[in-house]
Specification:
Elements: E1 9-15, H1 22-30, E2 37-43, H2 50-60, E3 66-69, H3 78-89, E4 95-99, E5 104-105, H4 109-118, E6 125-136, E7 141-144, E8 169-171, H5 172-180, H6 189-200, E9 201-215, H7 227-239, H8 243-258, H9 264-274, H10 280-287, H11 297-309
Parallel strand pairs: 1-2, 1-4, 2-3, 6-9
Antiparallel strand pairs: 4-8, 5-9, 6-7, 6-8
Helix pairs in contact: 7-11, 8-9, 10-11
Length: 312
Amino acid sequence: MSSTNNKKVNIILAVYNGEKHLKKQLDSLLAQTYDNIDIYIRDDGSSDGTVEFINEYIKSNTSNKKIILLEPDGKNLRCPGSFYEIIRRCDKADYYALCDQDDYWYPEKIEWAVEKLSGEDDSQMLVYYSASDYTYEDGEFIRKSPKQKDVISLRDVLYYTPGSGFTIVFNEIAREKMILNCNPGVELHDRWLLRGAACFGKAIYDERSTAAHIRHDEAVTAGDSDNKSLITHFIKEELMGDSAKNEKKALQHFFKTFKDELSDKNTRTLKLFCYKKNKLGIRLRKFFYPTRLRQRIPGEIALRILFLTGKI
């Protein structure tokens, strides 16, 4: 085993009515080639047999990886609140890995992440993320996630998340700065951490796929939709709904939280996209912003329309 094996990794697993999917995911966590792992699980008030299944799974665990089911607190925090709660309540570790209940991790996932992170200056905030695969429930391959930039800046995480949450691993400095010492609000944990890394530390991209996002028929998201479905999603949720407005509120919260620590360049960028009053001049500046803000063309077009109309 690599000399990096002395680094402790806490896996952060938030569950809700996940009895149907949990065994496959938990089996993949115990099959990790990296040994120094503790798995922290918080149930968010499941109404099925999730808690009973986890307790039985813990009893049958014969691996050297520890599974801790946090005591129930009676709160239904949903996502991302449940993840933030686990991160606050778990023991201190060198690294923290975010985990969804219904995906599947490849055996080298944590080993690769620790190797990448251990090669960086750990006196700064570090956030690792990787490519992933999209598959059907029977394991049939759909596609690999799009390749991301090796270096990301703030503009890359304004209205886009380069790395899915279940691929992210971050260090203790990131935990303290982005979660323990501030209120993340309702911003999704993956974007919150990557935005912080872009501003205050380093985001590390691994082009190897480390996990499979399983496309369940009952839970297809914009991220794994085809272009036609993606356009429908943006029209319904952003142009006609409040999704984009909520994204802007989260961006404003980030700006308010860290405004005294940002570089001049990032301050100017956030001021432009956080203006509360959308006068014509501001709308045009955002509409003609010279850099792509989303990777997929339908999403980029939708965003520019939202800027021009003054919705965000």
